[in-house]
Request: fold
Amino acid sequence: MKKWFVLKVESGREEAIRDALKARIEAQKAGDLIGQVLVPVEKVSEIRAGRKRVVERRLFPGYVVVEAEVDEEGRIPEKVWFLIRETQGVQGFLGVPYDRRARRPPKPLPMKEHEAQRILSNVEGPQDAPKIHVGFKVGDTVRIREGPFENFDGYVEQINDQKGIVQVIVNIFGRATPVELEYWQVEAM
Reply:
């Protein structure tokens, strides 16, 4: 029976550590004991230097998710434990202190089923439209970068994340006027 576990790894090197762990699994022929090794990411649409682009953002920086075999007691077999622990960059299992004097590896806590399913749905699910990353929140002062109100300042009244629409209150001829813009037409001040 396989369960999902979270590994603490060096932040910023999640993909490299995942690849190294997969290579060790193949070299040790432990594919039947260790299933998937994942770095949970999501696609985010953002504006940088005036250009809209889609980037992958790690959901949990510094962590990798591993599907590993467990015995009747809920322990990971020693071969699997040491294979994972001895991979360069892996700091240990989440929630388990590492004791070098222990005769047996401690019993790491597996993820709850609903937690694992939520992470897997983000990783394996259809990613048709990337999430929109808006660099400001309601109440922030912003400047309009494009459109008929270019270079006007205002404050954010509403943000519609699904459509990427931002409602900004702009002072025009002494009156507060709501203006609906796309998120990329506005920049935080």
